[in-house]
Amino acid sequence: MGLKRLDGLVFAQMVANGAANLSQNADYVDSLNVFPVPDGDTGTNMNLTMTSGAKEVAALNTANIADVSSKFARGLLMGARGNSGVILSQLFRGFGKSIEGKTELSTLDFAEALKRGVDTAYKAVMKPVEGTILTVAREAADEALRASESTSDFNEFMEQVITEAKASLERTPDLLPVLKEVGVVDSGGQGLLVIYEGFLASLEGKELEKPHAPVMDALVEAEHHAAQGFMSTEDIEFGYCTEIMVRFQDEKLKQTPFDEDVFRNELSELGDSLLVVADEELLKVHVHVETPGDVITKGQRFGELVAVKIENMRQQHSTILEEEHGANQHGVQATAVKAKVPYAIVTVAMGEGVSELFRSLGAAHVIEGGQTMNPSTEDIVKAIEAANAEHVFIFPNNSNIIMAAEQAASVAPCGVSVIPTKTVPQGLAAAIAFNPEADVETNESVMKTAATTVKSGQVTYAVRDTSIDGVEIRKDDHMAIAEKKIVASSKSSLEAAKALVDALVDADDEIVTILTGEGSSAEDVATLSAYIESKNDEIEIEVHDGKQPLYSYIFSVE
Asked: pTM of this prediction?
């Protein structure tokens, strides 16, 4: 017979195994995403979220399961990325609330905790959709309650839970038609199943190997020196401390073989303080540059992004001088602690040109991220704190970041309003509408309205063959995406952009803004502009160099 009572030590090992199993299967979970876009997707987001929770648990050594669960939930909450990561954090937040005050659990306790987690997660989602991770979690929890009535053995109990979770996952295409069309099961549900399978493996005495990640922290610390009082912020030549981690992929390595020396030489031309560490599975880079997007692009030639961290060192230097040395960026002694401002805007964007646009419109902080890497709850909380405002408005600019922003708002130390912008154009429209003289409620209303008045589109490349909404897509094709609908696929980014113009621009529109990114060209932009004018000769066309990776064009039409 197996375990009858579950304590904190056993649960901590289950968490470690669940995280390890998810890490080993993150690529597979990513492959199930419906849209074949090169974004930071479900497997990556859930993996980073679960890793954050597991790190909190690893620091404990207690048999009290409530204490372990509380730490686990906190780590998940702060590390949550993307909608799937936020839902995962809410599942175990409710789980932890259910077992408060308990030192160990029976199968019934565990089942009731899973059910409480499901209830918490459903409440966190404004419009729950069946056929997703929520469905798999709910039906597995219902089975857990039934299983707890027939067995007190945790091994048998988890086997029954997993059997139902698998069956529920297989039913997701019947609940969500787009899954059936593309021929996949729900990726978030698959990620949850992988975690549960890791739990069972732990109960069976199988300790899964934790993924090896090159350790660079000590090297990075050696490269970074404390800011000196006599140093001016303007003296910093390369302003962005950029770190990326890439998991090698065989298919990409066949096209672009990895040579560490050649790669290091390439990056050395972009900046300084360069460190490159690689093994058979992972590549990790640290470098100070002016164009972080170039580092990301070069790294992605060899595999998929696992993590991205970009910090504005000029801003950090100014803050250090002010807070630690009482001086401003020119070394002038400060006379008082900086007072809080009434309002601040925090936004998410990828691409230095896009970031500068937001800053020019008044954004206090731009969190590097979005399509390539969804920021965590903790990333957003830190930006809110750094804004030093009485009230902060957050523009997520991505539908997969809204829930993390709302979660950050719930734990932030000041008033926070999340303006649920789903695209960069929506965020720019909201920023333009902001009125520093108006009250919070008025600004919320006006900015939300402004975001809905703009039409958004983007051109990116496909990472696999598929067919969606009658559009046949081949790997490496350029896709035209109007709002969230793929309207065309072409070998040419210019032709895809023209198809996007056809889908977005009509005779009543007045302004088209084009943000150019990786893969665009001045010649193609000129051709595009002429094409837009041929459809509406009175329309105003604005072009900005967004410098965004992965997306050659982002369109805003209003």
From this structure: 0.75
